[in-house]
């Protein structure tokens, strides 16, 4: 039954749909906990996951990239692109539409073993294609074209989502498209991280300059290094797609690792890097570089499978970057200041533990079962903690007087107290009886 106009109006008037970021960040964290709980139950206890074409591994890979990953991307770009391009924010109608489209794609994919692959193909590909369609005009209309990297990344994600479903319809193993989707996601992370880190790292440097280090440098995410990293990632993703397990794929993976490590040269800005949020953002690039290095080493030597590196990319770089964006953008665009409490770094550490444990499970000689359990528990705990702390923020009205997706409005500083009036000067005159002019009491 379709929602009536009055009911639809009430839904759109709810604070949760005042900004696309809000429902999609809730969906991202909720899906992270539910999806990994199901997958951990399958690995540990043999409980069934939704029957989809390609089997359980295809379900897990697809939903990590095109379910969890694209949910976060949708919330971020629908909020950030209007801000970056100086255009009006998307309203509740867009927020509700994107959320409904994502949810419908999930239902269709999970039920594809029962109802066939066509609904999932149409809805899943349609949702992925809706994101570049939503922001393309704004990004292209920007006179300086400063943010078109988002558009190319979104188009790559849409292409890999469509390719996945096309292979399903052809009866071909679709996992190669999920792997390509991870590569597209890595490129998008590099694009987005340059914007996020400019804000966070320079805020930390400002605090250093105002405190003990007045000569602290300024951080700049330099385009040449960023573009080289994106090119190397795209090159490896393409080579691996057309020539998997080849020596060229191995060398391009190592080149991608080197290009990502080269990005870190911009980050060496002194002690500000050791503060909470900058250090966690820094760790994203390390996990990405280690992931590509592990893939290159696996293809070069044959000693390990590529699962080790792929999980460092997907659970590590993608998982940690998404967690941090949820914490940073969720607060700022939810009308709150950044949260300095210990739960934020605790969750980040849990995501890193999950990624390292899951990667370690693919190394011969290590206790794979125990590491798989540890990875599942740590991941669920991280995003469950996020929901516990942030759901009350994302589902309630702003408290700063702002509206929609605009950034947190800091309260105006209290006015300084007015100085006390100076005492009126004494007027000379005859001293009262009994008091001499020097102020001493005379004897009567």
Low-confidence stretches: 431-444
Strand content: under 5%
- Count of helix runs: 14
User: What's the rounded overall pLDDT mean?
Assistant: 92
Distance between the termini: 105 Å
Question: What is the total tally of β strands?
Answer: 0
For the biggest sheet, the summary is: none
Cα gyration radius (Å): 28 Å
Write a structural description.
With 444 residues, the chain is mainly α. Helices cover 68% and strands 0% of the residues. It contains 14 helices and no strands. α6 packs antiparallel against α7 (148-170), α9 (223-242) runs antiparallel to α10 and α11 packs antiparallel against α12.
Question: TL;DR?
Answer:
The chain has 444 residues and is mainly α.
Topology:
Elements (H helix, E strand, L loop, with lengths): L4 H9 L7 H25 L10 H30 L6 H19 L1 H4 L2 H24 L6 H23 L4 H36 L12 H20 L4 H17 L12 H26 L5 H26 L10 H18 L7 H27 L50
Question: Which tags fit this structure?
Answer:
single chain; 444 residues; mainly alpha; 14 helices; 0% strand; disordered C terminus
């Amino acid at each position: 039954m379709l929602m009536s106009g009055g009911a639809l109006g009430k839904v759109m008037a709810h604070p949760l749909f005042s900004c696309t970021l809000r429902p999609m960040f809730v969906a991202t964290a909720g899906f992270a906990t539910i999806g990994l709980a199901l997958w951990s139950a399958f690995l540990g206890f043999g409980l069934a996951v939704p029957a989809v074409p390609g089997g359980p591994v295809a379900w897990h890979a697809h939903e990590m990239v095109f379910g969890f990953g694209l949910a976060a991307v949708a919330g971020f770009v629908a909020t950030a692109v209007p801000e970056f391009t100086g255009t009006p924010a998307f309203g509740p109608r867009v927020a509700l539409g994107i959320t409904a489209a994502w949810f419908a794609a999930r239902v269709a994919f999970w039920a594809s073993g029962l109802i066939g692959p066509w609904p999932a193909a149409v809805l899943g590909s349609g949702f992925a294609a809706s994101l570049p369609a939503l922001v393309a005009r704004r990004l292209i209309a920007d006179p300086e074209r400063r943010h078109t990297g988002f558009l190319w990344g979104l188009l790559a994600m849409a292409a890999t989502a469509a390719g996945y479903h096309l292979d399903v319809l052809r009866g071909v193993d679709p996992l190669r498209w999920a792997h390509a989707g991870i590569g597209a996601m890595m490129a998008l992370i590099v694009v987005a991280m340059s914007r996020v880190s400019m804000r966070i790292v320079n805020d930390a440097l400002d605090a250093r300059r105002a405190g003990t280090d007045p000569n602290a440098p300024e951080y700049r995410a330099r385009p040449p290094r960023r573009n080289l990293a994106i090119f190397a990632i795209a090159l490896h993703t393409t080579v691996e797609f057309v020539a998997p397990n080849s020596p060229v794929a191995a060398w391009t993976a190592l080149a991608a690792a080197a290009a990502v490590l080269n990005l870190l040269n911009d980050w060496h800005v002194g002690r500000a890097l050791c503060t909470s949020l900058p250090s966690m953002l820094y760790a994203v690039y390390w996990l990405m570089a280690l992931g590509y290095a592990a893939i290159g080493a696996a293809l070069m030597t044959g000693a390990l499978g590529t699962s080790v590196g792929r999980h460092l990319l997907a659970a590590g770089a993608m998982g940690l970057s998404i967690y941090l964006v949820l914490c940073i953008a969720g607060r700022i665009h939810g009308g709150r200041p950044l949260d300095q409490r210990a739960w934020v770094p605790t969750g980040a550490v849990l995501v890193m533990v999950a990624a390292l444990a899951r990667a370690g499970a693919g190394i011969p000689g290590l206790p794979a079962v125990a590491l798989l359990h540890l990875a599942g528990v740590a991941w669920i705990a991280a995003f469950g903690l996020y929901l516990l702390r942030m759901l009350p923020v994302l589902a309630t009205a702003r408290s700063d007087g702002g509206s929609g997706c605009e950034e947190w409005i800091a309260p105006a500083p209290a006015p300084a107290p007015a100085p006390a009036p100076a005492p009126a000067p004494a007027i000379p005159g005859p001293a009262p009886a009994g008091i001499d002019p020097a102020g001493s009491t005379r004897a009567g």
